[in-house]
Specification:
The complex is a heterodimer of chains A (about 525) and B (about 170). Chain A is α+β, with helices and mostly antiparallel strands and about 525 residues long. Chain A has 4 domains: about 100 residues, 3-Layer(aba) Sandwich (Rossmann fold); about 70 residues, Dna Ligase, domain 1 (2-Layer Sandwich), CATH 3.30.1490.20; about 240 residues, D-amino Acid Aminotransferase, Chain A, domain 1 (2-Layer Sandwich); about 55 residues, no CATH class. Chain A contains 18 helices and 22 strands. In chain A, the strands form 6 sheets. An 8-stranded antiparallel beta sheet of chain A has the order 13-12-9-10-11-14-21-19. Chain A has a 5-stranded parallel beta sheet with strand order 3-2-1-4-5, sandwiched between helices. A 3-stranded antiparallel beta sheet of chain A has the order 7-6-8. In chain A, strand 9 and strand 10 form a beta hairpin. Chain A is globular, with a radius of gyration of 26 Å. By secondary structure, chain B is mainly beta. Chain B folds into 2 domains: about 90 residues, Glycoprotein, Type 4 Pilin, CATH 3.30.700; about 70 residues, OB fold (Dihydrolipoamide Acetyltransferase, E2P) (Beta Barrel). Chain B is elongated. Chain B starts with a strand and ends with a strand. Classes of the chains: A alpha+beta (about 525), B mainly beta (about 170). Chains A and B meet through helix 8, strand 16, helix 12, helix 13 and helix 16 of A and strand 1, strand 2, strand 3, strand 4 and strand 5 of B.
């Protein structure tokens, strides 16, 4: 038997739904969990799900969740064996992994060497070319300046993708169709990259037109055993951020599915990877697939795979970090039924997806068979302005895709969030779109289909109008009664002054006041 | 009360009559509905219309009702019939003239692309506002001239802060 350790206590260096997800896995495994929180997060849900919680600094992530020394200090003080980074924040930061190692704390993720190779997209591409994993045509090294960038783009020919070397999660990454457009967004894209990653190196890649984004979940242990847990279809994206994910993908057949699984294992083996991870591919309409990148972390959308395989991926990740061999062989991993995930963002889909932070005034979560909600928020809780706007993930499972879509629509209609705007109504539009139902999607699906074309409505217009009119009736009635009260208590002097005072008190316009005072 | 409801630019005439507490008779076009209304959660109403049960989530802002029912969002403007006639007689829509661009949310101004006196076209980027890790391009709602700029790059602003005036 290989030698391994069993963690007693794990620090979770994250917040929101993923911190809760990891705390749940720890609790199940009998491991104590320690969370950290910033000023804005004292009341956050993750603080209450863990066994211990420690304050680590002011609200901006750079002064709290990204403070390596502070987090290490808490881990040592509280007697942790290991640190789980979640996704985002420090999850793919090799400095952090080194700091963990230097302090004899196990980082629950891959070794620094493989993170170094895969974390940088240009290095990763190079390694994949050597390992004979197919890649998208493009330049490997970062562009020097605008002139250099324009020259290279001309060589590859437009459309191109302009990407941050240290990027991921769609930040600092743009699709560019022409030289004029490139000139216009060059600085903006670099600025975004600098802000998001502290690194503004960018490279250029040929854009595959109408591609589908299909990724393979893999797991490889410290003893060289590797399995894949099949694919996830993540083509439904907005601003290169995934919005809806599902498994299996309707874009590929079983033959390609197995080929991609094998290629994914080849890719992580080439980097001596030793954790759970995701190999992303672009798939064109002829089912050709190209390596895009490896996400060396637990993915946001991992529940989709958990639902179709029945495997607890976070538990598996912790066991690999403990040094245990994989408890599954490839032939044990089965992809059963169909799962869909909708990411719920605190954004207003009616106002160009503007972030919508604030207090949640009411919350009702969907339930029933086959429904899972991984949520980081609660009723009366605050969604702070400092962090990612994703507040929850709604995941459903059913026997096939059609049933899963029906179940997701049902679950979305039960889901009520008050006080902030969310993308829940937008998800209904996606699920009603005929091309989505047919599985005819690509990464520009939202821009081309959902945002431009009107989607069929299922709600009753008459009921909506009746509800609005009744509320208007009640609002006016309340306004009137306030006015009567005002007249009885403090009305006096000039009608103009009075009107001004009233409008200040009730926030009503002069027109409204006029209407009621006569 | 007589109202005019406007949804997707189509007008509907309706009447609301309070029959008893929480019970209303709504006349919409030539149909009448008996509506039993209960406020069950913050702005979530349970409506029973002629025996059928509906859940509607009703928000009000600046004269527009956002009604979410069966997962569909309806934006409805409800106006008193008399008031609407009065406004029409006076003429002129609200979108004309001076536009004050306010921030929808708190955030940091990353870049200001315009200065006072600039001519802008509808859709031109005025400034870039960062919130929740995303850089948002704030665009001009109309053609016009930049009359005032209230913010500078690097500044943090609150929700509803005035940013730019276009006329």
């Amino acid at each position: 038997m290989a030698d391994y350790k069993e963690f007693k206590k794990v620090l979770i260096a994250n917040r929101g739904e993923i911190a809760i997800r990891v705390a749940r896995a720890c609790r199940k495994m009998g491991i104590e969990s320690v969370t950290v929180y910033s000023e804005a997060d004292r009341n956050a849900l993750h603080v209450r799900y863990a066994d211990e919680a420690y304050f680590i600094g002011p609200s901006p992530a750079a002064e709290s969740y990204l403070k390596i020394d502070k987090i290490i200090e808490v881990a040592l003080k509280s007697g942790c064996d290991a640190i789980h980074p979640g996704y985002g924040f420090l999850a793919e930061n090799s400095e952090f992994v080194k700091a963990c190692e230097a302090n004899n704390l196990t980082f629950i993720g891959p070794n620094t060497e493989s993170m170094y190779i895969l974390g940088d997209k240009t290095r990763a591409r190079q390694r994949m070319i050597e390992a004979k994993v197919p890649v998208v045509p493009g330049m490997k090294d970062p562009v020097k300046d605008l002139d250099d960038a324009l020259n290279r783009a001309r060589e590859i020919t437009y459309p191109i993708m302009f990407k941050a070397s240290a990027g991921g999660g769609g930040k600092g990454m743009r699709l560019i169709h022409s030289e004029d457009e490139f000139k216009e967004v060059y600085d903006l894209a670099k600025g975004e990259a600098l802000n998001a990653f502290g690194d503004d190196r960018m490279y250029i890649e040929k854009a595959i037109v109408n591609p589908r984004h299909v990724e393979v979940q893999i797991a490889r242990d410290k003893h060289g055993n590797a399995i894949h847990l099949y694919e996830r279809e993540c083509s439904i994206q907005r601003r290169h951020q995934k919005v809806v994910e599902e498994s299996p993908s309707v874009a590929i057949n079983d033959e390609v599915r197995h080929k991609m699984g094998d290629a994914a294992i080849k890719a992580v083996t080439a980097a001596n990877y030793d954790s759970v991870g995701t190999v992303e591919f672009l798939v064109d309409k002829d089912m050709n697939f190209y390596f895009l990148e490896v996400n060396t972390r637990l993915q946001v959308e991992h529940p989709v795979t958990e639902m179709v395989t029945g495997i607890d991926i976070v538990k598996m990740q912790i066991e690999i970090a403990e040094g245990k061999p994989l408890s599954y062989k490839q032939e044990d991993v089965k992809q059963v039924g169909h799962a869909i995930e909708c990411r719920v963002y605190a954004e207003d889909p009616d106002k160009n997806f503007m972030p919508s932070p604030g207090q949640i005034l009411g919350l009702r979560l969907p339930g029933g068979p086959g429904v899972r909600v991984d949520s980081g928020v609660y009723s009366r809780g605050e969604v702070p302005i400092y962090y990612d706007p994703m507040v929850a993930k709604l995941i459903v499972w059913d026997i096939d895709r059609e049933s899963a879509i029906a179940r997701m629509k049902r679950a979305l209609s039960e889901y009520i969030v008050k006080g902030i705007k969310t993308t829940i109504p937008f998800h209904q539009k996606v699920l009603r779109n005929e091309d989505f139902i047919k599985g005819n999607i690509s990464t520009d699906f939202i821009d081309k289909e959902v945002l431009v074309k009107p989607q069929p409505r299922e709600g009753s217009l008459e009921v909506a109008i009746a509800a609005a009119a009744i509320k208007e009736y009640l609002r006016e009635k309340e306004l009137k009664s306030k006015l009567v009260e005002f007249n009885e208590t403090c009305a006096s002097g000039s009608p103009w002054k009075e009107s001004g005072r009233k409008s200040a008190m009730f926030g009503a316009s002069f027109g409204d006041i006029y209407k009621f005072s006569t | 009360m007589a109202y005019v409801a406007t949804v997707d630019k189509v007008e509907y005439k309706l009447h609301v009559k309070e029959v008893e507490a929480n019970k209303f008779e709504v006349f919409l076009d030539d149909k009448s509905y008996l509506v039993d209304t209960q406020l069950t959660e913050t702005s979530v109403y349970s409506l029973i219309v002629n025996g059928k049960s509906y859940e509607t989530d009703v928000d009000y802002q600046d004269g527009i009702y956002s009604v979410l029912t069966e997962g569909d969002l309806f934006k409805i403007e409800i106006m008193d019939e008399l008031k609407k006639k009065m406004l029409e007689r006076r003429g002129g829509g609200a979108a004309e003239g001076k536009q004050i661009i306010k921030s929808e949310m708190p955030g940091a101004i990353i870049d200001v692309k315009v200065k006072v006196g600039d001519e802008v076209k509808e859709g031109d980027v005025l400034l870039i506002l960062e919130a929740m890790k995303m850089q948002n391009e704030i665009r001009s709602p109309k053609d016009g001239e930049v009359k005032e700029v209230f913010v500078n790059a690097g500044e943090n602003i609150d929700a509803d802060a005035k940013m730019v005036v276009i006329e």
